Amino acid sequence: MDTILLDDIAVDFDEQALQKRLHVQPGSADAEELSQLCSDARRIARPKALYRIVYIDDKDDHGVVVDGVRLTSRVLRVNLDGVHRCWVYTATCGKELGDWADRLDDVLLQFWGEALKETALGAAIRRLNADLNERFQPGKTSAMAPGSLVDWPLSQQRPLFALLGDAERLAGVRLTDSCLMLPNKSISGLRFPTEASFESCQLCPRADCPSRRARYEPELMTAKYQRRGEDIA
Question: So where are the chain's domains?
Fold first, then answer.
């Protein structure tokens, strides 16, 4: 199936919510400046999401082959037991907003610009999830992203983006030489049907992660993913 591009995504830059989040006093000079920034962002922002359905060709102990592209991860391999199709995706705040925010020349404005990019990315993620659910009705799903675990390192962005096709031309998202995404407020990953909910956080021991979505379960690695004599944490 062809890659699906979502590029008509509306963003609500809720100024009151942003004031609260960024500790800006309503009615202050900072609030007025933030309001102007939001106005500029509304005019510029073009968040996007890109995804396609892919099919699993083969599996071995340490990875899977998806549409002819090998993804190497023991955890991903186990999570895809019994799965025949999944979805590869990226979502982004958009190159337009990213370039604009990168040109802001004041430290405080740059900080606010990052918050505006996060807001636009959030809109893109919600639209991506809604469109995929409506179009494919996949039921219960979970997702994994390269770089979220040692077992699936950031370098696996390259084969993931090979599955996406020309993400830079279609959605304005590109990989750096170190496999980071630009714009920086972008995500990518593989979404798959599952009976049991999975979050990479369950296998990640980092205690101070601000993005943690599930508690660390060290016993889960041993019980479900780890082969005897092997350490994949």
Answer: 4-225
Distances (CA, A) of 104 to 15, 59, 152: 19, 47, 34
Residue whose C-alpha is closest to residue 5's, from 130, 170, 121, 166: 170
Quick one: how far is CA 107 from the chain centroid? Answer: 26
Terminal C-alpha separation, the chain: 35
For the entire predicted model, the pTM comes to 0.88
Sorting pLDDT into bands at 50, 70 and 90, what band is 14?
A: very high
| Three-state SS at 82 | coil
Q: Does domain 4-225 have CATH number 3.40.50.1010?
A: no
Which token pair is 233? Answer: 């944490």
What is the mean pLDDT of the segment spanning 65-87?
95
pLDDT tens string 17-35 = 999 999 999 999 999 999 9
